[in-house]
Amino acid sequence: MIQQRANFDWMLKELADGVHGVRQIVVLSADGLRIARHGGDPDGADRLAAACAGLQSLAAAVATEIPESDGNGKMRMVIIEVNGGYFYMMAAGAGAYLAVLAEETVDAGLIGNRMRDLVVRIGAHLTSPPRRDGQAV
């Protein structure tokens, strides 16, 4: 597991504090390893990160079936509504993603915009280098 980076704390906290209803935020690598988190517990964040890797792969497969897609199958954003809340996942730099769990009361437009703003502002810092045998290359 990648250690949580202390300099991400304030950025993720700012997103959580800026949108009412945010429960947990996770930054993860494309292969499902947690890079940073805010809210929730570490084990839950690790499970969410692992699930996001599968979801990202599924979204890429679906994207290839969209005729207007550029054919690269890259996911930009996934939104899932479930009983009790929402899940958002957005591409956040080369090999990294930003995931948010939120309550039903969250302003869907606001959270999407704030996530996008965060990615634009710090996207270069939300990258995860490729790994070989569990080590960064």
UniProtKB/TrEMBL annotation:
Pfam families, A to Z: Robl_LC7
Superkingdom of origin: Bacteria
Residues that span the membrane, as ranges: none
InterPro entries: Mycobact_SerProt_Inhib_Rv3364c, Roadblock/LAMTOR2_dom
Domain Roadblock/LAMTOR2 positions: 9-102
Protein name: Roadblock/LAMTOR2 domain-containing protein
